[in-house]
Design a protein that fits this description.
The structure holds two protein chains of two kinds. Chain A is 6% helix and 53% strand. Chain A has helices at 2-20, 157-162; strands at residues 26-28, 49-51, 56-71, 74-75, 79-94, 97-106, 111-124, 127-135, 168-180, 183-192, 228-237, 242-251, 256-257, 260-261, 267-278, 285-295, 308-325, 328-343, 359-372, 375-386, 395-407. By secondary structure, chain B is α+β, with helices and mostly antiparallel strands. In chain B, 28% of the residues lie in helices and 7% in strands. Chain B has ten helices and ten strands. The model of chain B has no long low-confidence stretch (mean pLDDT 94). The chains are: A mainly beta, B alpha+beta.
Chain lengths: 408, 396
């Protein structure tokens, strides 16, 4: 009897609560359309929802898809995947202090990550301080990775399998911007906790920067006590393009422990360039990123773990139709194409002098429908080629991916 | 409404046709991996477990790699289950006769030429002779394992009784304590016929597998419990079950499927192969005896080996040996799958025991000792005949 009473009470409260919702109280913060935003602004340029005059705004996005891929005649069959469910909470603590957090649930609840949780203090447009869990600004994708912004179901392989997107760490740094007519210049520089020796000792059997994410303790303590330096400079002309140059580097190994020297300091250094532009008449959007990875791998280890990697992607998105589709007045149909390439091991075998292969490339033609700017439905056909270390015949994977991603 | 129906039809047709947009499987004859025909569902499941352990398990410091090692996984030495590449070629040192290895104290018999960071790999002692071993193909090993000792001995001719210049001897080896004798094993003063490895020094695939985990990857098992770095007995880093799955996988990998068998040049080449006596050592057909795996029992197969040791002459004598083999003796390598070697060796041939031959012809010309007679006959063939012989060998 008590249980029944309790359930009824809960239902009554829930009904009352629902009855109290007044949609007019919600305000959706509009996306910036000045054309002066940079990739570094992506974390705040999201459609947050705020209630009344509360200083807290909420948001998030969701990504799910179906895929049927086959590799050399073998397929996993029909797969339905809940890739991501991400929640944002932003708060304006005062006019010049704000806080943003991003919590991501990947593949259901297989991975739960705090991707961003940083406090920003604004002193001057050219000097702001950010601290907390920040996303290291290497390349463009790591900062600007929200699913609804992309026409492709998969994230770029170079960004997730060579660079470790999404890659965030605890640390502090500064950033700033300078506007000059149609130009904007910006910089960011952070010191954070960094990589660990998993990058050259992992179950992938190759130099794999994303393996550093397995170390959950990086939010609590540095692996070796040496900060990872990440710095980026970007320039944008309102009608031409944005170009970014970024660097991330530090010591990845535990060279000493408990006061004892164990090894020399071994560095990992990453350089990246990113470009994006919208061609004026055709409204063709071009977005590209290329990165180089250098790792000091001991000569007495195995060449399976590369000392150099390189790779990137180029996306072209062409709006084909804008108008009303099924009552969605601002629908846009896009044709898109991605080319991506990663050489996981740049070098030559000591034994033969032959090229070490271990590379990957893919093409992804795509069609997307955006019923609103915040929602995208995507149809991709992916065809990829992968070689092993020795350069034996390429393994081919291909198939279709259909999915959606939307801010909410 | 019409638009809606079109979309539904489009989605339906995507579901129906998605498999057609995907890469096709290569022909069975063009790849080396895959199980033998006739396995039960349970055996196929075990094959799959072994396949994963062999090809997907990459060892790390955390899972026991090294500290000294040659490779981080089984699959990295045997890409696609085929022959290996100089990148993962093994070096063994320290034994010059059947008296045993003189350099066990210095890390023999196998050189672990790589080490995890902050460790130093081994080096070959100045006084030790050594030999390099290119990883062999794994295919069809279960068939070779199931040939009876009696059949192998029947092919041996230690004193060259038939006067053809070819002897052929077995490598008599001492057994590891974890080895269970296969039925019909012949005892020779406590030693048994070895049939795996370049010198035929491994009795069976369990010895080969446990040894490879230990010597190639620095992984300790209950079978091979001693760490190659410290020499101490340490806790197992791979389970017996996983080792047994890998052994089962190796036993049940299919035999390579010959290609272009109806081609006129292949047929002519096959005739030349016999005509110049290659088949005296590279015996075309063998038979299996009873096996615990029904699919391997009483099968006739074509490996092109006699599983015996032969004198291969001074050029191939590295001054290193194993078991009772002489330094100049090498076990006849099976020729099956030879034509597919390139697809696991990065597009080039690395033939003979150490990969020194960069073509089939070079490998033939490097035959000495008991192989010299056949080599000279090959040299005497016309250019077209040589080509036909090589076409035949590539069809295997």
């Amino acid at each position: 009897m008590r249980k029944i009473f309790f359930v009824l009470l809960c239902l009554l409260i829930a009904k009352t609560t629902t009855a109290q919702i007044d949609n007019t109280l919600f305000r959706r913060k509009p996306l910036d359309s000045t054309g002066m935003l940079l990739n570094m602004d992506a974390v705040y340029n999201r459609p947050f929802l705020s209630v009344g005059k509360l200083p807290v705004a909420l948001g998030g996005y969701v990504e799910a898809n179906y895929q049927h891929l086959g590799t050399d005649g073998i397929t996993e069959g029909h797969q339905f995947q809940m890739r991501r469910f991400t929640l944002f909470v932003a708060s304006s603590i005062s006019r010049k202090i704000k806080f943003l957090s991003e919590i991501e649930f990947e593949d259901g609840t297989k991975e739960i990550n705090i991707e961003f949780a940083a406090l920003d203090i604004e002193f001057h447009p050219l000097f702001n301080v950010r601290g907390g869990v920040i996303m290291n600004p290497i390349g463009a994708f790591n900062q600007n990775h929200d699913g609804p912004k992309w026409e492709f179901v998969d994230r770029p392989v170079s960004a997730t399998q060579m660079l470790p997107a999404t890659w965030s760490n605890v640390g502090f740094g500064i950033y700033g911007k300078q506007f000059q007519k149609d130009w904007v210049l910006a910089y960011e520089a952070y010191l954070t906790n960094g990589f660990n020796d998993k990058i050259i000792d992992n179950s992938e059997g190759k130099t794999f920067l994303p393996a550093a994410k397995e170390n959950r303790e990086r939010f609590e303590e540095s692996f070796n006590g040496v900060p990872l330096v990440t710095a980026k400079g970007a320039i944008r002309h309102k009608r031409i393009a944005e170009v970014g140059l970024s660097y991330m580097g530090g010591v990845y190994n535990k060279f000493q422990d408990d006061g004892l020297e164990l090894d020399k300091r071994r560095r990992v250094d990453v350089f990246a360039v990113d470009v994006n532009s919208t061609l004026p008449r055709l409204r063709t959007f071009i977005n590209a990123e290329w990165a180089w990875v250098y790792v000091d791998v001991p000569a007495t280890y195995t060449q399976q773990y590369a000392s150099r990697q390189r790779g990137g992607f180029a996306d072209i998105v062409q709006p084909l139709y804008t108008g009303n589709i099924f009552g969605f007045n601002k629908s846009v149909i896009n044709a898109a194409f991605r080319f991506e390439y990663v050489d996981y091991n740049v070098g030559r075998f000591n034994e033969t002098g032959d090229n070490i292969s271990d590379h990957y490339y893919a093409i992804v033609p795509a069609i997307s429908w955006r019923p609103s700017p915040q929602t995208v439905l995507r149809f991709n056909y992916r065809y990829s080629w992968k070689s092993d270390l020795l350069g034996n015949p390429l393994s081919k994977t291909a198939g279709i991916q259909v999915g959606f991603s939307s801010y909410f | 409404m019409k638009r809606f129906i079109n979309i539904i039809l489009l989605i339906f047709s995507v579901f129906i046709s998605c498999g057609k947009l995907e890469p096709k499987a290569p022909l069975d004859e063009d790849i080396l991996d895959g199980p033998v025909e006739g396995l039960s569902d349970e055996q196929r499941a075990m094959f799959l477990k072994g396949d994963i352990a062999f090809n997907n398990d990459v060892f790390t410091k955390e899972t026991g790699l090294g500290p000294l090692f040659v490779s981080t996984s089984c699959g990295s030495c045997h890409a696609g289950d085929g022959k290996g590449h100089p990148f993962t070629t093994l070096t063994r040192f320290g034994q010059i006769n059947e008296q045993g290895n003189l350099f066990l104290h210095a890390g023999g018999p196998q050189l672990q030429n790589r080490a995890i960071p902050s460790h130093q790999p081994e080096t070959i002692p100045a006084a030790a002779t050594f030999s390099k071993f290119t990883p062999p193909a794994n295919t069809g090993l279960g068939f070779l394992d199931a040939v009876s000792d009696a059949d192998i001995l029947a092919m041996a001719d230690p004193n060259d009784g038939d006067g053809d210049g070819i002897s052929g001897v077995t490598n008599w080896v001492s057994l590891k304590n974890y080895i269970t004798l296969r039925e019909g094993s012949i005892d020779n003063a406590g030693k048994y016929i070895g049939r795996f490895g370049k010198k035929g020094a491994a009795y069976n695939l369990l010895q080969q597998t446990a040894g490879a985990y230990n010597q190639d990857m620095g992984i300790v098992s209950t079978y091979e419990p001693y760490d190659t770095y410290s020499g101490e007995e340490i806790d197992p880093e791979v389970s017996n079950q996983t080792v047994q799955h890998v052994v089962f996988y190796l036993k049940t990998l299919k035999a390579p499927v010959p290609r272009n068998t109806g081609d006129a040049n292949t047929i002519a080449g096959k005739g030349l192969f016999t005509q110049i006596n290659c088949n005296k050592c590279h015996v075309a057909e063998l038979k299996t005896s009873a096996s615990s795996i029904a699919a391997l029992s009483y099968q006739t197969f074509a490996p092109y080996t006699d599983l015996l040791l032969h004198d291969m002459g001074n050029a191939l004598d590295d001054g290193y040996t194993e078991g009772s083999a002489k330094t100049y003796e090498w076990k006849t390598p099976p020729l099956w799958g030879l034509g597919l070697a390139k697809i696991s060796q990065g597009g080039s041939y690395y033939l003979l025991h150490d990969g020194r031959a960069r073509s089939i012809e070079e490998a033939i010309l490097l035959h000495g000792g008991e192989g010299a007679h056949a080599r000279d006959k090959y040299k005497a063939l016309s250019k077209e005949e040589k080509q036909q012989l090589i076409i035949f060998l590539e069809s295997l």
